[in-house]
Amino acid sequence: MSYLNEVKNQGQKANPFFCLMGIEPVSFGDGKARLSMVIRDDMKNGEGWLQGGMYTALGDEAIALAIYTLLSDKETIATVSCTTHFIRGAREGTIIADGTVVRKGRTMIYAEATLTDADEENLLARCTASFIIRSGTIRG
To answer: Residues of the chain whose pLDDT is less than 70?
Structure first.
């Protein structure tokens, strides 16, 4: 079963990292994906803010899911680079990550994610990433 079918059928349970972080797939298709994550106390740094790596991880996952909507069943991906620009801190609530494929080539994909609060009024972070496409391998 393809990863996208697993996410459609199992939701969060299709990805162990989603389970660990409490990430919920909201929607995905046509080179886009939306994920949500509730901020927990164990995700915060010593000053009570959401730790920066949480933004990056959530953005990376939204981007990867968006990319999978454009791949064949025999293609997989690996992150080559991911840069996160931190714009605003968050201490509580739900974060929404919207991943979008910017350009898909034969061997590389460029994508981005925006992370906002649940009301989508405050931009919290922006991630840009590049991924390599691995052809001829089957996920599993």
So the answer is: 1, 136-140
CB contact at 8 A, 47 and 57: no
* Amino acid at residue number 136: G
pLDDT at 8: 94
Radius of gyration for the chain, computed over Cα atoms and rounded to the nearest angstrom? 15
* Strand blocks (E) in 1-140: 23-29, 32-38, 75-86, 94-104, 108-117, 123-135
Instruction: Specify the DSSP element, H or E, that contains 58.
Output: helix 52-68
- What is the phi-psi region of residue 22: left when phi exceeds 0, alpha when psi lies from -120 to 50, beta otherwise? left
On the 0-12 / 13-18 / 19+ scale of CB atoms within 10 A, 42 is exposed
- Contact 82/129 with Cβ under 8 angstroms? yes
Q: What is the pTM of this model?
A: 0.93
* Span between the terminal Cα atoms of the chain, in Å: 9
Separation between Cα atoms, residue 40 and residue 47, nearest integer Å:
14
For residue 130, which amino acid is it? Answer: S
